[in-house]
Design brief:
Belongs to the peptidase M14 family. The protein is α/β, with parallel strands linked by helices. The protein contains ten helices and eight strands. Bound molecules: zinc ion.
Length: 280
């Protein structure tokens, strides 16, 4: 499988959105840190009438891809999903897409960590952090900065403070304005469908857990042949992650369904063959 480099992928994305001005719009959001570090994140809105003044009556879906640099495949999946929603890719019937878009609105971030991915494309194939060495999936303000015994800063340095990173602030601010009903943070490295919590071996209260678990079990049967690990991030993986986006979306922003999907992983890959471990 040949993966596109980020510049080519983003060019393709921009062209796709430009071909569908009534259903897709693209915004480039910039933020910087006090030391001058900058990030720009593209976010694509998809709806049957994307210029509508309000999406109050819609199911609001917020999807994030490419949070970790080395997980290149996730941004390819974002582009594929956008092609399907545009109806250029005919994998789903027009009727099916029409029905989804009559009820839902999407905000899709195809590549959160553009800077970190650049590092990977320059040869550091195992890099997952952003352009200045912070794991942006440890930079959110839920149990931020707590470190496990096996803490490895080259993997999960959480930054100097919660929301120290421009990428994290951009995503948080999109969520604050958009008020999603559904959040999915798409990663690779294994095959799993996670619900909260990442930072402890527990799920949310019974009703919420039952609802989310039902959704994940259904997806597991439909798309994973039952082979995906399903459960709370902290409970099912065997390690705790502190300061994650999904925990913040659920706990603080009260997004009712908040998930992390791990869409691909090669468990037989050599430990230092990160390209193979995270990408087909
Ligand atoms: Zn990841």
């Amino acid at each position: 499988y040949r993966l596109a480099c980020s510049a080519a992928l983003l060019r393709e994305l921009d062209a796709l959105v430009a071909r569908h001005p009534s259903t897709m719009s693209l915004e480039g959001i910039q933020a910087d840190a006090s030391d001058g570090y900058k990030a720009e994140i593209r976010v694509v809105t998809v709806a049957d009438s994307v210029q509508a003044s309000s999406f109050d009556d819609r199911v609001r879906i917020f999807l994030n891809f490419g949070q970790h640099g080395r997980e290149l495949i996730t941004s390819e999946v974002a582009l594929r999903l956008l092609r399907i929603l545009s109806r250029e890719d005919k994998s789903a019937s027009k009727k099916h897409i029409d029905r989804i878009l009559s009820r839902a609105v999407f905000k899709i971030v195809p590549m959160e960590n553009v800077n970190g991915r650049q590092t990977v494309e320059n040869g550091s194939l195992c890099e997952r952090r952003n352009g200045r060495g912070v794991d942006t999936n440890r930079n959110w303000k839920v149990n931020w900065g707590v470190k496990e015994k096996d803490y490895d800063p080259t993997e999960e340095f959480p930054g100097t403070a919660p929301f120290s990173e421009p990428e994290t602030r951009i995503l948080r601010d999109i969520a604050l304005r958009f008020k999603p009903h559904l959040w999915v943070n798409v990663h690779s490295g294994m095959q799993a469908l996670f619900m909260p919590y990442d930072h402890k071996n527990a799920t949310p209260g019974y009703q919420a857990a039952a609802r989310m678990s039902f959704l994940l079990q259904t997806l597991n049967a439909l798309h994973c042949n039952g082979n995906c690990t399903v459960g709370s991030g902290g409970g099912a993986v065997g390690y705790f992650a502190h300061g994650t986006a999904t925990d913040y979306m659920y706990d603080v922003l009260k997004v009712p369904s908040a998930f992390t999907f791990e869409i691909y992983g090669d468990v037989h890959a050599n430990r230092d063959d990160c390209f193979r471990m995270f990408n087909p």
